[in-house]
Amino acid sequence: MSDIPRRPSRIAWLAPVAVNIPFGYLAVLPFGFVWYFLAQYPLAALGLTDRDPTDNDGVLPHLVLLTVTGLFLALWTAVNAMVRRRVVLPVRLYWTVAAALLLGPFVLIGVFPTGWEMWQASWGWL
Predict the structure, then answer these.
(1) Could you name the domain of life of the organism this protein comes from (predicted)?
(2) What is the DSSP letter of 47?
(3) Do 102 and 26 contact (CB within 8 A), yes or no?
(4) Contact by Cβ (8 Å): 80, 98
(5) Which residue, 31, 57, 101, 106, is the most exposed by fewest CB within 10 angstroms?
(6) Can you give the pLDDT of all 126 residues of the chain as single tens digits?
(7) Residue 2 lies in a domain
C-alpha cells in the first residue's frame, strides 16, 4: 500500500453539491434581507445608498430577519460539518465549494436581475 493520498473521485462531490444547492436556492431570501438592511441603515448612513422613503418600520423587523438569517447560517454550518465528516475531501476545498454553492444563486441574481424573475417563477407551485 502506498502512503500517497489519492485524489477524491468525482462521486465524492455528490453529497456536498446535493446538500448545498438547495441551501443556496433558499439562501437568496435571507441574504436579500441582509442586503436590504445594509442598504437601508449602515450604507445609507455612510451616503453609499439612498434610504427607502416608505421604510418606517424601524430596525426591529430587520433585527428579527437578521436573527433568522443567523439561524439559517448556523443550520447550514451544522449540516455541512456533518457531511464534511462523512466524505473524504480536502477541508479547504470542501468549505470553499460549499460557500460558493451557498452564495452563488444570490450573486447570480445580483449580476443577472432577470434571474430573480426565474427564481420567483420556480415558486409557482406554492
Answers:
(1) Bacteria
(2) T
(3) no
(4) yes
(5) 57
(6) 455 556 667 788 899 999 999 999 899 888 888 888 888 888 888 999 888 888 777 777 878 888 889 999 999 999 999 999 989 888 999 999 999 999 998 888 877 777 667 766 776 654
(7) no
Q: Which domain holds residue 21?
A: 11-51+58-118
Question: Is 123 within the bounds of a domain?
Answer: no
User: Domain count of the chain?
Assistant: 1
Q: Rounded CA gap, 36 and 40, in Å?
A: 6
H or E stretch covering 19: helix 14-40
Q: Which amino acid is at 47?
A: G
pTM of the model: 0.75
89, part of any domain: yes
